[in-house]
Amino acid sequence: QKEVEQNSGPLSVPEGAIASLNCTYSDRGSQSFFWYRQYSGKSPELIMSIYSNGDKEDGRFTAQLNKASQYVSLLIRDSQPSDSATYLCAVNKLADDMRFGAGTRLTVKP
Amino acid sequence: KAGVTQTPRYLIKTRGQQVTLSCSPISGHRSVSWYQQTPGQGLQFLFEYFSETQRNKGNFPGRFSGRQFSNSRSEMNVSTLELGDSALYLCASSLTGLNTGELFFGEGSRLTVL
C-alpha cells in the first residue's frame, strides 16, 4: 500500500463544473496536509494547506480533511481551463519527511 | 523577492559519473529539501536541511548526499550514477521546515544518465 494514494486520472470536467480530487494516506500520525498544483513542465506550487478536520475554503478551492477516514480532498468550483494541471496531495508527520501522492491529472474542457 | 534558483537546469552524464546540483533558497528561508521526480515514482523526498543540519532523510541509497552552507544554499551530490537516476531533481525552500508545508520549489535540474 502506498503511503499517499491518489487516482492518477485523467479527470476531465467541463468548464464551470466542480472538480473533486481525492487522496488517502496510510499513516495515522500524519498531521499536515497539502495540495500542490503542477503545470506541465513546471514545478509544484502550493495551493492549499489543512491541518484539522473539516473544510477550509480559499476562493474557488475547498480542502476537506477527515482524519478518522484518513482522507483528504480538494474541490475546485467553477473550474476553468487554466486549472488544467496535475494536483499533488502531500502529507507530513511532525519532524518527519514529506510524502507526495503520484498526482491526479485534471483537464478542464472549454 | 527572488525565488528558488537551481543550477544547472539540464545536464547529461554517463553511468558511473557523479553529479552535484545546487539550490539557492529564497532569502531568509532556512530549510531546503530535495526531491526526485520521475514519471513512474512521482515526487519522492530525498532529504531536508535546516541551518546546515540534515533533519530528515528519505529512502534513498547512500550515493545520494547533500549539504547546506551557512548562507542556506544547498548542494546535493549523486555518486556512481545509474540509469535509474535519470529524473527531475527539485529543491524547495521553506521558512520553517516541512511541517508547515509551505514549500517553494525551484524549476528543477533535469538529469539524464546515459
| Unreliable sequence segments of chain B | none
- The whole-angstrom Rg of chain B is 13 Å
DSSP, total strands of chain A: 11
Helical residue percent of chain B? under 10%
Question: SSE string of chain A, helix = H, strand = E?
Answer: EEEEEEEEEEE
Distance between the termini of chain B: 37 Å
Rounded mean pLDDT score of chain A: 93
What does this structure look like?
Chain A is mostly beta strands and 110 residues long. Chain A has no helices and eleven strands. Chain A has strands at residues 4-6, 11-14, 19-25, 32-38, 45-50, 54-58, 61-66, 71-76, 85-92, 98-100, 104-109. In chain A, strands 2, 4, 5, 9, 10 and 11 form a six-stranded mixed sheet that branches. Chain A is globular and about 40 Å long. The mean pLDDT of chain A is 93. Chain B is an all-beta fold and 114 residues long. Chain B is 0% helix and 53% strand. In chain B, the strands form two sheets. In chain B, strands 2, 4, 5, 6, 9, 10 and 11 form a seven-stranded mixed sheet that branches. In chain B, strands 1-3-8-7 form a four-stranded antiparallel sheet, with no helix packed on it. Chain B starts with a strand and ends with a strand. The mean pLDDT of chain B is 93. At the A-B interface, strand 4, strand 5, strand 9 and strand 10 of A face strand 5, strand 6 and strand 10 of B.
